[in-house]
Amino acid sequence: MSIEGFVCAPLPVDEAERLRALRRYGVLDSDPELRFDRLTSLTRRLMGTPMALVSLVDVDRQFFLSRQGLDATQTSRQVAFCAHAILADDILEVSDATRDPRFAGNPLVVGPPHLRYYAGKPLRTPDGYRLGTLCALDTCPHAPMSAEQRHMLSDLAATVMELIETRVWALEAESERQLAIRMGVLKDEYLASMAHELRTPVNAMTGFGELLRMTGAPDVLSDNQKGYLDNIVEASEYLALLVNQTLEAHTPADGDGSAPVKIAPVALTPVLTSVGRLLTPLARKQGVTLTVADAGDLTAWGDPVRVRQVFINLMSNALKYNKRGGTVSVDLEADCEWLSIVCRDTGKGIPEDEIPKLFSAFHRVAENSPGVEGTGLGLRITDRLVRMMGGQLSVDSTVGVGTTFTVTFARAT
């Protein structure tokens, strides 16, 4: 299109997508930055021109991200030499604008700053959109660029584009860091609130259970009912310990968020017997037979609360993911240095390709999970606890046969 004796550049065929890409980089109307100014200064010296620009071609203007030898921060797109340059990938060179029909009547040629020479290399994004140019300008004609100058101008333009990319990455990284900080604050606020909401009913359960045992209830309860009451009190005490330690493990004062462990000899018989009693109602509900071997006087090095947590997680999983009429058994194997507690079930089994993912956060085996509540965190937490106590957790499974989890601890005696 020709206007008042000069030719306006046509729009690129990908103009809509090009403008979206330009907006995505967020550089329009940004403040001057030394790293871009250094490149325009170098371009001016390379080309022997009084002016050099990093120009970004917007809808109806060209904005100068960096400028040397020019006071204006932008011009109309209609008069922009760069609007012509972005129509192709190669350098656009105009040796004498007064002899070029596209620019002879251009207001920037016939009036201030009386441009005669222009050389611009498009700034091309990795996905192929030309945002603008790195260009050199002069008020007097120039001979055509040498091959070396063309090569160097292209390298400088590529560097400008890389800096624009880096700028975006830095801003995104900063935003992600700010989001992480905010999420950390929200997590701490949530945990503080959860501490109150969980501790209050858990302490009430424990208190009322103890009160019931102390006020003559055993005289009117059957043996089975007394056992149920003991289980309720024992479970609520364990839950209170678990809530307290879990919440404390996530306070900001704790270096890496790891739950503290207190390693000591742990008698396995009371731990496994207690967990077996606790999970008996779940076994009945699932229609699964649960058997726990007598550990005798065997003791392992670990944290009593965390050892119990490990076996609650493993045994409850074995029950939940089993089939009605199936079995879950807990057995022990020992030598002079190590103890292995083996939890076997007759459930659906785990596909071989799923086993390496079992200890990943939020991972659940899809075909085994319908109708079973869970977050996909239990096995990850269990594996971490075992390792924190110096032990090892391993798994072996066959689809259609069942799954075996083996926990190995150092033997204490």
Question: Which helices and strands occur, and which strands form pairs?
Answer:
Elements: E1 2-3, E2 6-7, H1 15-25, H2 34-47, E3 51-57, E4 61-68, E5 74-76, H3 81-85, E6 92-94, H4 107-110, E7 117-124, E8 130-138, H5 147-214, H6 223-248, E9 264-267, H7 268-286, E10 289-292, E11 299-302, H8 304-320, E12 327-334, E13 338-345, H9 378-388, E14 392-398, E15 402-410
Helix pairs in contact: 2-5, 5-6, 7-8, 8-9
How would you describe this protein?
The protein has 3 domains: 144 residues, 2-Layer Sandwich (Beta-Lactamase), CATH 3.30.450; 82 residues; 153 residues, Histidine kinase-like ATPase, C-terminal domain (Heat Shock Protein 90, 2-Layer Sandwich), CATH 3.30.565.10. It is 42% helix and 21% strand. The protein is built from 9 helices and 15 strands. The protein has a 6-stranded antiparallel beta sheet. It has a 5-stranded mixed beta sheet with strand order 10-12-13-15-14. The longest helix is centred in the middle third of the chain and has 68 residues. The chain is rod-shaped and about 110 Å long.
SSE pattern: EEHHEEEHEHEEHHEHEEHEEHEE
The CATH architecture of the largest domain comes to 2-Layer Sandwich
Mean pLDDT over the residues: 84
State the CATH class of the largest domain.
Answer: Alpha Beta
Q: Which value, in Å, is the CA radius of gyration?
A: 37 Å
Number of helices: 9
Instruction: Report on the biggest sheet.
Output: 6 strands, antiparallel
Number of strands: 15
